[in-house]
Amino acid sequence: MDPWVTCFLTGMVIRYLDSLSGIDDRLDYRRVMGVVEGFDHIRDPKAFLLDPNNWVPHAVLRELIHRSEEASGRKDVTYRAALAYFASSNKREPTLMETIARYLDDVDMAVRCSSLWASAYSNYLRMQAFARPDEAHTLYVLARFLPPVDLQIGNSLLIKGNIEGFSQLYPFVESASCEEQYSQLRLETIVAEFGEVYVLKPDGPRNAPTAWLIKEGKTGRTVATARPFGMGVEPAADWEEGQAYAADRPTSRSSERLRALRIEQPGVLRTGSLEYVLQESAIYDAPYTRYRFQWRERSVQEAVRQQPGSVTDRASKGVISRLLFDHLVGLQATQRRALGIFIRNRDLREENKQLRQELYGATETGGLVGKSRPMQELFVLARSVAQSDVTVLITGETGTGKERTARLIHQLSPRRAGRFVAINCGALAENLLESELFGHERGAFTGALAQKKGKFEQANGGTLFLDEIGEISPAMQVKLLRVLQERELQRVGGHEDIRVDVRIIAATNQDLHALVAERKFRQDLFYRLNVFPLHIPPLRERVEDIPLIAQHLLDRHTAVQKKAVKGLTGEALEVLIRYRWPGNVRELENVIERAVALAGPKTAMIGPDLLPPSIREAPETISAQGLDDLVDRIDWPLIMQALKDGRGLTGLIKRIEWALIQRAIKEHAGNKTAAARMLRRTYRWLRKVETGRAGD
User: Fold this and answer.
1) Are the CB atoms for 5 and 146 separated by under 8 Å?
2) CB-CB neighbours of 122 under 10 Å
3) Which CATH class is domain 363-537?
4) Which sign does the torsion angle of CA 622, 625, 626, 629 carry?
């Protein structure tokens, strides 16, 4: 269930902020609305949030409360906003809900309708009121925030302010108070709202702590302590199982499962000008919140003097009818806005689908170009593995097209309707990578102003591409391994296990076999990733594809740069084929893009003169016949010296073998597994040779 809230509550907060000097300039309402995708197109977000007929996701209210606290410097800004709103009821047009409350003309009846008010305010809040038979002018209000909403200080105070403040609508009410007897607020949430300033630590046995300590993060000083607390129950009609917890009743067996915490040592949490007081004996971590609402009434004569005229007269049928029609008009406008958002999202989905078809539909190879045997084998393997959900490990040098291959697999798979989410694991620091992959809760660290979904959640139902997987730290390898095994994760700063349905494709230009042997990469993680290995050959191993790739890239960049170039001359192609391309297709694309940029407005063919000097001056490769004649080209005295230094022919052959191994490793960008494969040897054989050379 997606949690939504009426803008009656957001408007309440904004009106109070408007009454404070200089606050409005500090709030960017577009950013407040921008926390939820789909609401960024609203032209006047402040006006939208002030209209009580509108609805917004709860995340918008949460962001507004957070920014209001920062701007005002007060954690109780929502409580003050609610009281101020109802205090100004005589100076503005009442809303429909205020009019209904006045029309009831009975505080007791109005509070007992709290379940209706809750459903009118939101779809994630459940409320119920009941009375004790021996207490006059006293009602107990139960309020439960439903998942996935995590109750926070601002929300709690906003509810309290509404319960206490609405009584100001009645002239016969002299005073009213709302006391929180126990709270659904979790100590963990309260501490998290102050960032890294404080930490919550258990004291005692790990499985059953006897106390919880709130300490300063830097000094370790204990600010407040709490201990587990049990409560009895009492009857509460229409609430869960017809009963509710009562803090002033003795503990009974029915409360054995209750995990509430009571403050034993009070304290004050502070960060900047914001502070929150943990009162002695205050109770947190309850399954719901319980308020004791009490009011005192004036005499009839005093009430008339306070506000002449009957409440019922003021709320005449004509006024109620007009408000109902206004509400109906507002509701229709809201529905039209919601329909507009729905249509816009549908159009975006259609456009996205169309773009995908254009991107991948034009070719079954997902933008990869090649008719050589290695590439045809790669396409066959990619099509085969796409039909299953097995994890794929793509290896290859930089610039060979690993991400394009991953996208091709996704597009050919049954998950093509889901998202393809890519992340470069080597481009982020460890703490940032963890937040990007798994997401974070609000307050998990400095700067975590709102809850954020990680790449795993974003890719749910689709494919997650982990590029440069060999760059992640050992600590991150452990966390990633758990998610791959369990398909469950916890956001940074969170404690809830979140299940994800994601297909994993990883890629690296490093030799993971070597990293495992050197204990730099976990063997169990390697086996989790290497279920279906795919190796992309470097460009120098498929030179027959260079003309095709070059023409493909040329067509793309001539269209972008609006040039008249049609192709490359034979001489230019010979230069491209002769070059070794250490940067592979990416380097070739840069060369083509540069040549198109240098081409004149009437240039039809790219010649060697438009290619970089480093490409034109590359040494020619030795043909197969030249390799057979290589010994004849070397001066004989040099061969004699080599035989002497190498202790005969056997030593010379070993030196040549070692030189070829080093060249193979260099040609494969340090990937020893690929180098051994090219030499028709195994990785173990190559490591054995290396070990032998180190011992010489």
Assistant:
1) no
2) 22
3) alpha beta
4) positive
